[in-house]
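Thread title: Can someone regenerate the structure for this chain?

I was given the following input by a collaborator and told the matching structure tokens would be attached. They weren't. Posting the sequence so someone can regenerate them.
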Amino acid sequence: MASKTTESEGKTATAPMIPEEDILQKAAEFFMGEEFQDAIDQFVNENYRLFSDQTEIYADVDHCDSDSEEYLQQNITRGHGLEQHAAYQQFQELFEYKLETFVQKQGINRAGFLRQCKNAISDDAQGIESMGTVFVDLLLATSEYEGFVTMMATQAKELNHK
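Best answer:
Regenerated them for you:
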């Protein structure tokens, strides 16, 4: 297994290089792991109250499946405050920070990571499902505001009923 040597504070550290074909598998494992999930849980617990007024519109709705009876129609204006948009920006920053940290810790080549993401999108379009396609779907869903609000409203509904 190849390794990448980095210098930090005058010390040399070696990070294992992940074979390109394993990048998305490792990324999916990280994002399903305790460190990442704890960060997301903490964010949700600190911000879900901002979305309590959205539970009737968003909670328990599959916003991605247009065949669903409860599908959120696109291009419908829904009232969201500045605090909700700010929370979305903070979530994006958290997600990007965690992804960047993972990439750096693993010594992953960014070009290889992007290439594997593109391959997963291509596989998904051909009906081929793998951990990589599931991970890329998750990655793309985090960039969608509707998906974020749905997640937060669902959590608000669950946490408000405890």
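DSSP finds seven helices and two strands in the chain.
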